Amino acid sequence: MPNGVDRVDLYRLFRHNITLRAGVAPARRYLESLLADVLAERLDPSPVFPAQIPLDAVAAAYHAMDTRQAVKIAIRP
User: Fold this and answer.
1) How buried is 61 (Cβ within 10 angstroms: 0-12 exposed, 13-18 middle, 19+ buried)?
2) pLDDT per position as a tens digit, 57-66
3) Which residues of the chain register pLDDT less than 50?
4) In which element (H, E) is residue 53 found?
5) In whole angstroms, what is the distance from residue 39 CA to residue 34 CA?
6) Residue 51, class by beta-carbon neighbours within 10 Å (0-12 exposed, 13-18 middle, 19+ buried)?
7) End-to-end alpha-carbon separation of the chain, Å?
């Protein structure tokens, strides 16, 4: 889901011949194999999770996401 989008200017899209498509990503279908690749260090998740925190700082991570300081945060043990 786009972060912070509360409306779409449909007239602008129409005027500039822009196509807007949306859908739901079936993330759970790929989660197990992607996690295995991340744990085996064959896949670098840092472009998706720019921030990393230890497990005992989960409350701070939720606060950062709630205040829009971060969109996604990786939690490390």
Assistant:
1) buried
2) 999 999 988 8
3) none
4) strand 51-54
5) 9
6) middle
7) 27
